[in-house]
Amino acid sequence: RNCAEASLFAMDFISNVSMDGTVRMISNIKHHGRTTMVIVGEMYDNKNRLLATMMASMVNVDKIEGMPSKW
Fold it and tell me: Are the C-beta atoms of residues 14 and 50 closer than 8 Å to each other?
């Protein structure tokens, strides 16, 4: 059973990364309410250049095991 269903997912690609490159994603939960959650993130390459941004709105249908309700 899914714990959360995506109601909106958007990702904006800003730049490319080479096939042998490394990327990292930094994400933050901006809102974690009883019924909804909003997560934003940014993707960077190994030279710390911004590659993409993302935003997801989720509808909580159950508790996510291991995720604290307060950060």
Answer: yes
Q: State the DSSP code for 64.
A: -
What's the sign of the alpha-carbon dihedral 7, 17, 42, 64? Answer: positive
CA distance 24 to 48: 9
Residue 67 binned pLDDT confidence (cut-offs 50, 70, 90): low
**Model confidence over 40-51: pLDDT tens digits?**
999 999 889 999
Residue 8 near residue 18, CB atoms below 8 Å: no
C-alpha–C-alpha distance, residues 22 and 43, integer Å: 10
pTM over 0.85: no
